[in-house]
Each structure stands twice: as C-alpha cells, then as structure tokens.
Design brief:
Length: 285
C-alpha cells in the first residue's frame, strides 16, 4: 500500500486502514499492516528531508539504503521523527511480518508461540492510547479508564498497537511541516567570518550569564548551609572564588579565560584579527 500526498484527511485515513486490514487471513493482515507502516515511514522521511526526486530514487528504491522497513524505522528514530516506543513496536511488527513470510505453515497468530511472544512485547500506554470509539453522554466525554492491552487476544493486541501507531504517524506529518529540512546554502566567506565573530561573542555572553547565575545559587546555598559545617562552607567558598575569577576575566575582556584554546595575543587580538579580515573582504567586494 502506497500513501499518496492527498491522503491526509484523518477520517479518510481511518477508513483506508480499516479496509486494508479487515481481511480473514492473519498472514495478509500482518503483511498489509507492515506495508502500511513502511509506506508511512517513507512518507515521513520525504516530508522531513529536503525535496529532491533524484535523491529519493537512490535512497528508497529496491536494494537502496532505505529500501527496507528496518532501515526506514531506524532512520526515522535516529532523526527524531518517531519515538523510542514507536521504533520498538515497529521492529516487533516487522519481526512478526517476517515470521509469517518465512514460515508458510503458520495460519493464525495464536497458533505460533514465537508470534505470541513477540506480541506480548508490544506496548501501548494508557496515555498514548487512541480509543476506536468514544461515547459522549450529555454532551460530555467521559473519563477514559482503560488498559489497552490487558485481557485481549493476540490478534486484537497486534491490531490495536498497529492502529495506534499508524494514527500517530498520520498526525506526525502535520508536525513535520514546521521543521522540514531545506537545502543548505553556503554562505559567502565574508558572512561566515561575521557569523563566527558574532557567535564567539554570544557564546561568551552566555557563559558569563551562566557564571553569574551559578554564583547566586552558591551564595543562596551558603546561606542555608549549617554554619558549623566548615568543610561544606569551604567547598562552596572555593567554588565562588573560582567563578569570580571567570566573571572578572570576562569583564576585563579576557574571553578565553579557562578555555583550552588560547590564541596568541588573547581575545582582543582574536577579535581584531576578525575585524581586519572583515574589512579586507568588504573592501574587495
């Protein structure tokens, strides 16, 4: 099953999924479910990464690096597109799919201990469960008290977890639209120099602010420390003295204080070097 770009309406999606998995054969249901997830993960990767049909061709076609469900699942998790729970559940579904594909004599999920064991490892928390039906009474939605995978048979457990994942992945496309990657554009060297200088200054401001805040916390801690606990008081005073040195160094213009990299001439010479480079490239452009 391939998902088209216009298959985004949630009610339409529910009907598509129901139609696809509503078959008599457990084997067909499992293989179809895995195929749906494979297609969804591919769609999510394409929505997240830059748009380039030629790259898509090389990545997703047969025998390519992202051709398999396993590869797509791993890449989606690695990129932060899916949760760890989704990743683990999809891996289990993939293994169940492979079990059916390689063991032709298996007819039903409940008749194979390996599949039963795999299904027992599927997880679905109460907080993440999307009920298939919600009864509204007197215009109000009642509080849902469910343990989604308790006291149900193996097939129902599989279907319930699958449906939950596929629904969440369908919603995920909306989230990805806000963080879609764009093709990286190289900055002109002049802009690169300016940005490097700016970032260096901003990082040091942040470092200075963090030291100020940390010193304040230590002073508050010292106030609350038992006055008779000399060892603890001395430890706090020592930390404050160390932070004071960093604060004073920054205020006196030593932006490289306590850093491993110490350029010749100190931070003033470092800034001056960047200013000279900026002036040189501005004059030549």
């Amino acid at each position: 099953m391939k998902i088209k770009d216009d298959d985004v309406d949630i009610l339409k999606w529910i009907s598509i999924v129901e139609e696809e998995i509503n078959v008599k054969s457990d084997r067909a249901m499992v293989i179809t479910s895995a195929s749906i997830l494979d297609s969804q993960l591919e769609m999510l990767l394409k929505e997240f990464m830059i748009t380039d049909s030629k790259i898509d061709e090389r990545l997703f076609n047969a025998n390519s690096s992202l051709a398999t469900l396993s590869a797509k699942n791993s890449m989606c998790y690695y990129l932060g597109i899916i949760s760890e729970n989704e990743y683990k559940n999809i891996e289990i579904i993939r293994k169940i799919r492979n079990r059916f594909a390689h063991e032709i004599e298996i007819k039903k999920m409940c008749n194979d201990q390996a599949i039963i064991d795999l299904c027992n490892n599927l997880t679905l928390t109460k907080e993440m469960y999307m009920p298939e039906t919600i009864t509204i009474r007197d215009g109000r939605v009642p509080e849902l008290e469910v343990e989604p995978l308790e006291n149900i048979d193996t097939q129902t457990k599989f279907i319930r977890v699958f449906k939950n994942i596929t629904m969440y992945l369908n919603y995920r496309s909306i989230e990805l639209s806000a963080i879609k990657r764009k093709e990286y554009k190289n900055l002109p060297f002049l802009e690169l120099i300016k940005n490097t200088k700016k970032r260096f200054i901003e990082l040091n401001k942040k470092r200075y602010k963090m030291n100020i805040e940390y010193k304040q916390k230590l002073l508050e801690k010292m106030e609350k420390t038992n006055k008779n606990d000399n060892m603890d008081l001395e430890r706090i005073k020592s930390k404050i003295q160390s932070i004071d040195k960093a604060i004073n160094a920054y205020e006196n213009g030593d932006l490289f204080y306590d850093l491993t990299v110490q350029p010749t001439g100190g931070s003033q010479a470092y800034i001056k070097m960047y200013d000279e480079m900026i002036k040189l490239f501005e004059n030549n452009n």
